[in-house]
Amino acid sequence: MNQADLQADHMKLEDTRVTRRYFGKFEKITQHLTKVAATMEAEGRFARRDIEAVARYLVGLNWTFRALAHKYHFAGRFAHAGSLTFDRHESGFPVYQELLEMANDAQQAELRLGAMPSADALKDQMVEVILRDQDIPTKLQYALSQRLYYEELLKGEMFWARNDPQAVWIENVGDRRRFLIHWAVYDSQVNLPTIYLMDLEDTGRTGLPKDERRWPEAQAHLMAQSVAHLKLLTIAKGFDEDFDDLHPTSLRRFHIGPMYSNAFTRQSGPLREVLDAAKSPVGEDWALVWTEEELVAERVEHVKSGWFGTVERQIFALDPFEGGGAETGASRMERSLIMPERPYQALAERNPPGFRDVRKFVVSDRGRVLSYR
After folding, report:
1. pLDDT for residue 227 is more than 80
2. What confidence score (pLDDT) does residue 49 get?
3. Contact predicate 89/79, CB 8 Å
4. 1 pLDDT tier (thresholds 50, 70, 90)
5. What is the mean pLDDT of residues 345-366?
6. How far apart are CA 341 and CA 318, in angstroms?
7. By the 8 A CB rule, do 35 and 43 touch?
8. Using CB atoms within 10 A as the burial measure, which of 73, 85, 159, 225 is most buried?
9. Angle at the Cα of 21 from the Cα atoms of 105 and 148, rounded to 5 degrees
10. How far apart (Å, rounded) are the C-alpha atoms in residues 239 and 226?
């Protein structure tokens, strides 16, 4: 898809009321995501260390949306207030450029805050305008929203455009160290948060996170390969071949989204009909896709290296039901739908083809998560 096509799918939210409704929807969605992940752990689909890694990024995503909600709280009120651009066709999420700008703003956050009045001072000025001028202090409210935005950025722990790999030690087995490597990106091609988990065995002399040569190289390699169109098999084999003493035994990728909502996104097909039929109240007219891909090593081969040496190479298992896995490049892939009760009821009543084998997580504002096949 060329740049013109991508931009045609982008839309600016230039109305304050619509912008706040958009962020209100995502505030609910991101809060539901951590509960869905906890449900997956309870079902045995995640180890505790895996869920802790995934939950960290989901919480960060919540902070990211909270910060952007402050930034654009007065979109449409002033020419300079700015407006959020989001992908209304394939993603439903803000475009990649929004997260790049947020990262740049974070670099300036301390400087910006130092030049602003405190939150208490701004509130005192608002009271003065209301009492003295009997007017709505809109410009002061906007200034406060920007201060809150930079305060959120200064706290950190957001979901950024790039979230560099981190290593979690699992155990030592003989001369091997086992690590969980996790990282995440906001994919620029599909405008979606994507989380990666890799289990690997390290046979190097120095543990990977403490190795001043291998660790930066491994981090750079993984970040360069973290794009949606690359198959897991391509990523894992490339890593395995580039690092003779690092052996990836599994690689998982989680695509968070797209988000579908008749109020904001353009979509066609059964899901649009389901959302139309649901006639859900504001805040509940959405469905979110959660896709998990997994690639696991089924055996190890020793291949010649140099004149006399050999190195381990992982042989990965591919999905036997997907043309030998050539299409997916994974051992398995599972899609789930996360949605409120009303859309789920409409989906169950219509029962469209293609959705019968999709896992459904039905969420409510009461904190309950129900899982259906």
Report:
1. yes
2. 94
3. no
4. very low
5. 90
6. 35
7. no
8. 159
9. 30
10. 12
Q: How far is CA 202 from CA 90, 124, 208, 302, in A?
A: 39, 58, 7, 16
Residue type, 367: G
β-bridge mates for residue 304, sequence order: 310
Per residue in 102-147, pLDDT (tens digit) is 999 999 999 999 999 999 999 999 999 999 888 888 899 999 999 9
**What does the alpha-carbon distance between residue 26 and residue 61 come to, in Å, rounded to a whole number?**
10
161's tokens: 């455009």
Q: Which amino acid is at 172?
A: N
Whole-model pTM over 0.90:
yes
Which secondary structure element, helix H or strand E, spans residue 197, and what is its range? strand 192-202
Report d(CA 218, CA 208) in Å as an integer: 9
Task: Quick: pLDDT tens for 260-308.
Answer: 998 888 877 788 889 989 998 888 899 999 999 999 998 877 776 656 5
Q: Which two tokens stand for residue 233?
A: 């098999």
Q: Which of 287, 290, 291, 373 has the alpha carbon at shortest distance from 328?
A: 291
- Given a contact cutoff of 8 angstroms between Cβ atoms, the answer to whether 305 and 244 are in contact is yes
What torsion, rounded to 10 degrees, do the Cα atoms 51, 52, 57, 58 define? 60
